[in-house]
Amino acid sequence: MDALANLMEGFSLALTPMNLLWVVVGAFLGTAVGVLPGLGSSMAVALLLPMTFALDPIGAFIMFAGVYFGGLFGDSTMAILMNTPGQASSIASTFEGHKMAKAGRAPQALATAAIGAFIGGIIASILVVFFAPVLADLSANFGPQEFFALAVFAFLATSSVVSDSVIKGLVSLVFGLGIAVLGIDSISGAERFSFGVPELFDGVNIITVTVGILALGEVFHVASRIRRDPAAVATPSSGRPYLSKAEFREALPAWLRGTAIGVPFGVIPVGGAEVPTFLAYGAERSLDRRRRKPMFGKGAIRGLAAPEAAGNATTGTAMGALLALGLPVSATAAIMLAAFQQYGLQPGPLLFDRAPDLVWALLASFFLGLLVLLILNLPFARFWAKLLLIPKQYLYAGISVFCGLGVYATSASVFDLLMVLGIGVLGFLMRRYGIPLAPIMIGIVLGPLAETSMRSALLSSNGDYAVFVDSPITITLYILLAVALMITAFSRIRARAKADV
């Protein structure tokens, strides 16, 4: 009952005219950015991060939540209409969603995606309301060694899952950790890897990194391929933007199954919603093969419904893991963790005691944001595709200017502009050679936590490394990590064996 009372207080804050405006603005911007080719919620949050420091924390994070969910809606629109997913989490939606669009069922496909995302997000948000405080109480038992184990779990699990190559995932992680240790050591005061450059003594600003890697790197990537990639032709979207009773009954079990698959992955650091969306699609395809008339490959509505619900369910519980544990399980969550830190807040068990108004207003805004997104997408989804008519050279030139203005507004430093340019080149090279971006973001954000926790644990134990395996929580985390790595290795060996047959 305490959770319900706190949630009602959160609604009283979120429903103020100004905060309600930020919900709408965040949902609109997130959807608009997600619809654009190659962009997504993580890039939207990265671009908007420097612009929201004039807002109070509650308003800023309410808008971020709208952007987070809105980006997923926009990605789905792009994937269905253009067969071009804005993010990896919407790849699974292209398989059957685009076939539905090509068959003249684009509005029904968009409605399936919108309702599925709403159902998955709402169920996940309800679970977060009741279980996030429980997670926070549990994490109060975490000491330095537990936080170090949690960080190692996130590092290795993310690096091994989000890329086809474990080596590439680890390379990305090393890049992130390398950037994280730049500057003056907070404990010893020693200068580390700054090469005598005064501007690097304080390390690299997280905003500079996120804008450079996610936004400017994508601009360079698109610019390098603009003459090779033919312009996509938008699929006409006409007809009723809602589902018939038969279509709704067909999709409902898939929405529920997708939600059940996606919810646990919000607290497992596997890089975001990519894994659960593919699992949900695979589960529906396996069930479809047992039917008398298999529909997959012809525009099966269940093949779209399940991944959409799974993706948003993962996003919802990922926000709960971020608030309760301070654990970012995706690149976007890592950026939001950095945003909390910019406001002097540290997500985790103490956040519920130190900033309860912010936490519960943010949780209430999840429900409002999902409702606003449903209203925006059901009747107007067909019009989002018109954003794709903007010529790429104008679109990405505008994004470049926005990147520079955002970074300069944060630090008023020309050095940071040069830094974001260099990091943008790094982001381009990572895309060029298929190196995943999520591990570098996880490394940058969680690197300092891992280092500080390791050193604190060693100091408290007089240098005894056994401290890292002397509690049930750390042992459990390491066992789970070992199991996850073995499952990943087994699945890849099996996939290679099938490919060789």
TrEMBL record:
Presence of keyword Transferase: no
Record key words, sorted: Membrane, Transmembrane, Transmembrane helix
UniProt KW Transmembrane helix keyword: yes
All copies of domain DUF112, residue ranges: 20-442
Transmembrane segments: 20-39, 45-73, 109-135, 147-163, 170-188, 200-220, 321-340, 360-381, 393-411, 417-433, 440-459, 465-490
PANTHER family: TRICARBOXYLIC TRANSPORT PROTEIN
Record's protein name: Putative tricarboxylic transport membrane protein
Species annotation: Crystallibacter crystallopoietes
